[in-house]
Amino acid sequence: MAHIRRQQRDILSLRLPDGREIELLRVVDPRARHLRLLVAGSGPRLTIPPAASAAEARVFLERHLDWLADQLAEDPHAVTDAASPQPGRPGTVLLRGRVIALEWRAAPWLQVAQETDRLVIGMPAAVRPETVRQALGEFLLAEARADVGRWLPRHLASLPRSPRQWRIRPLSSLWGSLSPSGALSLDLALVLAPPAAFEYVLVHELCHLLQANHSAAFWREVERRFPRWRAQRDWLREEGSSVKSELRRLLG
After folding, report:
1. Which of 95, 130, 184, 201 could disulfide-pair with 166, CB 3.0 to 4.6 Å?
2. Quick one: CA dihedral 99, 174, 157, 181, positive or negative?
3. Which of these ranges, 13-17, 70-74, 155-159, has the smallest mean pLDDT?
4. Where in the chain are the domains?
5. How far apart are the first and last CA of the chain?
């Protein structure tokens, strides 16, 4: 599929393990890097990167059929996906644009850590679900801060000043903002997106220190610092709502 340059979509009729027949939207997306299964308000969707073979996509889908049946049985209209953590039950989590395995382990205290290709949540026998969500949120915040801390010095060198302060938190609709006083806000959901998309939003907001508008001059500043910005903006427009929904699910 490596020659694909535009999205290809078709509808796949699928039989779930419980016998139900459903329709699933299958999308081969040239911008996707990993297989991803999502249940949105419009129904189930399987996103396939060009590098994945038809056999790989089929195996991935078959491996998640039980999960898909569970989600649709709970609420056919719910917005959820394979990243939704269920204590004690293996699954997958989206982090930095990659779907990685989610593993639960017994531990004397609650801890969340990434181990190469998996996210491991260690927890004691008795722990409240909201405590687990809080720990997961703190992990994601630390990861997002580490990313910004790595990128920020490189971009600040060409700016007249630094943001007065910056913080990362869940935002309902925006990806980021820069206040008139110079305070920079970024959406925590960006840590779930590919790093290039996250860095584009950071550059976008930093460029407002030069141009407090979206004029041609503003976009020239963005272009100079981040030539790939158009592809990342398109990705956020296409996949952004599901990424924001996923963060809401992860954090409750």
Report:
1. 184
2. negative
3. 70-74
4. 8-81, 91-127+135-139, 144-251
5. 37
Q: Which helix (H) or strand (E) holds 69?
A: helix 65-74
How many angstroms separate the CA atoms of 219 and 199, rounded?
15
Residues 30 and 50 sit within 8 Å (Cβ to Cβ): yes
pLDDT of residue 86: 63
Please name the residues in contact with 196: beta carbons below 8 A apart, sequence gap of 6 or more: 228, 231, 232
Here the tokens at position 179 are 């206040």
Whole-angstrom Cα Rg for the chain: 20
DSSP three-state, residue 150: helix
Distance of CA 205 to the CA centre of its chain: 19
Residue 204: what residue type? H
Cα gap 129→201, rounded to integer Å: 32
Nearest to 85 by CA among 137, 145, 14: 137
> pTM to 2 decimals?
0.69
**Residue 99 corresponds to which tokens in the numbers above?**
């779907």
- Write the class of the CATH domain 144-251: alpha beta
